[in-house]
Structure prediction request, 475 residues.
Amino acid sequence: MADQVKKPVGIMETVLRDAHQSLIATRMPTDMMLPIVDKMDKVGYHAVECWGGATFDASLRFLKEDPWERLRKLRDGFKNTKLQMLFRGQNILGYRPYADDVVENFVEKSVANGIDIIRIFDCLNDLRNLQATVDATNKIKAREGRGHAQIALSYTLGDAYTLEYWVNMAKKIEEMGADSICIKDMAGLLVPYKAAELIKAMKEGTKLPIQLHTHYTSGVASMTYLKAVEAGVDVIDCAISPFALGTSQPATEVMVETFKGTEYDTGYDQNLLAEIADYFRPYRDECLASGLLNPKVMGVDIKTLLYQVPGGMLSNMVSQLKEQNAEDRYYDVLKEIPEVRKDLGEPPLVTPSSQIVGTQAVFNVLMGERYKMATKETKAVLRGEYGQTVKPMSQEVIDKVIPGEERITCRPADLIENEMDKLEAEMKEWKQQDEDVLSYALFPQVATDFFKYRQAQQEKVDMTQADTKNAAYPV
Prediction:
């Protein structure tokens, strides 16, 4: 064993972003994070994911915190560890495509405030929607020597998604100038032996480092990581045990123990990890007691593999059917989901494509006629507003839903005029830092409410007297 070549696997810790996004709807406040940063910084993690995804929206909307302020405080505390964020390509952290100048500005400010690695994904895996973000990151890297663009491919199953497809994508990503690739398995669909096959093929097709991200939803994730690491994956995403498993990631300590004494040994200190776990455990208990953490999300849901539908999408669908007193149509809708997905060009099911496909499937079943009524999002997908799908969309459905309408074939953002100046003019009365313009760009109403709240706090207004319903604060 002495001559064994060491290739320690890197671990990205998700407790400050995806773990609490998956388990407690992104409600962990910054004050909960800061006291443990010092210990987390000593582990030697490949990176800590702490920003992006839903954290931005949840901070402003529910926690009344400035997300930029959170990032600065975390950056201040993490002296030796890279910080990572999740970025929805041209949609940034919002729900519509933005102009390139907004994307560029957002990347610029993210790096300036402390982000090292930007993980960029697109719900259709349309690489054109990721190019602007990669270019913006590379521009900063050339200038300042920091910033890393990682492209995440949303993993999914279907005829179109062959090994050739994934390997070709990896080659294209390398040509785009990205620094690394992530396989983002948001629904826990990647099973162990398939993972080994996928990583092996991709490793042969590209020189870029490969990271694997999955969720424990279907119960196979730790085994998937084991096979992926043996096949040569460079980094795996894990969560410290109190916020691991269920709809979150496999537990950090478990994976560290698994590879101990092998060529993949992380070298992390289990005693230090135990202290970090001890810190988060009382908070987890508090979340269980308050109902913020629902024990339902902690179990294994094998239906994910049977129907290839992410957990969040299933619960969404059930509540839509409940509202219509049509819970007995559950299995009809489950059968309809893959049909709608096929009609729309077989996109991966991840935000927002999962919501669009699910809602349309519910309509198709309840109306008794397919596409008798189409949502505005379904129409937008058919028009090409979200980008290009892997397979062509159904011509029959296009003719029925958007007859005679012109379809977009270019990169959707090519049709969007620069918008930074306009946004700045709209919100200038609230601007206290350049970053405020970006908060407003993503969530105009929510950010404005937050700015009002912030001003009231600064002027020491008695919030108990404030009419928060109408957002009027006595000064």
Summary: The first helix runs from residue 18 to 24. The first strand starts at residue 10 and ends at 13.
